């Protein structure tokens, strides 16, 4: 388990009202502390940076090619950020639509392979496949 210790020398205003993090600071939600008195939240630190940036800017900003939206959604739900969960759901639906519209590049290869077959026959429970150049045997 890796531990991230987030610290800053300046005050950062976070929009945490109503979230799990907000409830920690108001004392409504219990949260363990480490030996230095820092709050200890045993969650994915690499994903938390996106949660933290969202709380700082009140908008989702992830790097190009980011592919961990499912995990980010789980973390957003854990931290009690329904607006972020909804934003991620919209993104995930968009990805699914794009994936459905994308043509399958292997489809042409599959049909070409089938068209190249010269002969397929079964004899005594064995399947024989041959093309123009060689004979193959499948048991």
User: Which stretches are low in confidence, meaning pLDDT under 50 for 5 or more residues running?
Assistant: 109-122, 126-139
Number of strands: 3
Q: What name does CATH use for the topology of the largest domain?
A: Potassium Channel Kv1.1, Chain A
- Provide the CATH top-level class of the largest domain: Alpha Beta
Strand order of the largest sheet: 1-2-3
Radius of gyration: 27 Å
Shape: elongated
Content of β-strand: 5-15%
**Global structural class:** mainly alpha
List the helices and strands in order.
HHHHHEEE
Distance between the termini: 49 Å
| Largest β-sheet summary | 3 strands, antiparallel
CATH architecture name of the largest domain: 2-Layer Sandwich
Helical residues, percent: 40-55%
Q: Supply the number of helical segments.
A: 5
Task: Write down the domain tally.
Answer: 2
Assign the CATH superfamily of the largest domain: Potassium Channel Kv1.1, Chain A
């Amino acid at each position: 388990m890796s531990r991230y210790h987030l610290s800053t020398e300046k005050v950062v205003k976070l929009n945490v009202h109503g979230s799990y993090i907000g409830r920690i600071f108001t004392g409504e939600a219990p949260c363990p502390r480490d030996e230095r008195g820092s709050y200890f939240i045993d969650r994915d630190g690499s994903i938390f940076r996106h949660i933290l940036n969202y709380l700082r800017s009140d908008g989702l900003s992830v790097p190009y090619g980011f592919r961990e939206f499912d995990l980010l959604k789980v973390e957003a739900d854990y931290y009690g950020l329904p607006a972020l969960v909804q934003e991620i759901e919209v993104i995930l639906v968009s990805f699914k639509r794009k994936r459905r519209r994308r043509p399958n590049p292997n489809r042409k290869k599959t049909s070409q392979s089938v068209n190249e077959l010269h002969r397929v026959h079964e004899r005594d429970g064995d399947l024989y496949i041959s093309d123009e150049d060689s004979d193959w045997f499948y048991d």
